[in-house]
Amino acid sequence: MTRPLRIEYDGALYHVTSRGNERKPVFKDKPDRELFLSILFHVIQRFHWLCHAYCLMGNHYHLVIETPDGNLSKGMRQLNGVYTQAFNRRHHRVGHLFQGRFTGILVQKDSHFLEVCRYVVLNPVGAKMVKHPSSPW
After folding, report:
1. Structure pTM?
2. Which of 21, 41, 95, 119 could form an SS bridge with 99, CB 3.0 to 4.6 Å?
3. Is 24 helix (H, G, I), strand (E, B) or coil?
């Protein structure tokens, strides 16, 4: 069975998630989260993305990304690939870090944009990881 094609076009807005393989942690500590955000920053610059919201959970992450150049898959390959290599080096491990393909759901800018952003930033609060969205790790 073939994988469905991703819908990518200039100016598209996505709710992106990627989960750890076997639901295992992809962020073990603060340096992992800082490393991921550093790589994300470089990917945002390189691919000219706009990041409207994000949250890093223990075994997955959420992003709200706008792609002015319609290049979500290329950027996600860079983000997950570079982070996996760095994570594996840092934790002396090999193999896949993320479970399958990332999920990229198209978001309607007018009707769902604010709701998706609200969901993403409140996700750690709902999971009782923090008391407030602005709380530090």
Report:
1. 0.92
2. 21
3. coil
End-to-end CA distance of the chain: 41
∠ CA(87), CA(70), CA(133), 5° rounding? 55
Q: Report the pLDDT value the prediction gives residue 76, as an integer from 0 to 100.
A: 98
Number of helices (H), then strands (E), in the chain: 3, 4
Phi and psi, residue 67, nearest 5°: -115, 90
- Is 112 in a helix, a strand, or coil? coil
Report which DSSP code applies to 127.
Answer: T
Residue 61: per-residue pLDDT? 98
Domain residue spans of the chain: 12-126
CATH entry, 12-126, from 3.90.1150.10, 3.10.20.600, 3.40.50.920, 3.30.70.1290: 3.30.70.1290
Q: Compute and round to an integer the Cα radius of gyration of the chain.
A: 15
**pLDDT mean by block of 10 residues, the chain; 137 residues:** 83 97 96 98 98 96 98 98 98 96 93 94 85 72
CB atoms within 10 A of CB 96: 12
Q: Which two tokens stand for residue 46?
A: 């390189």
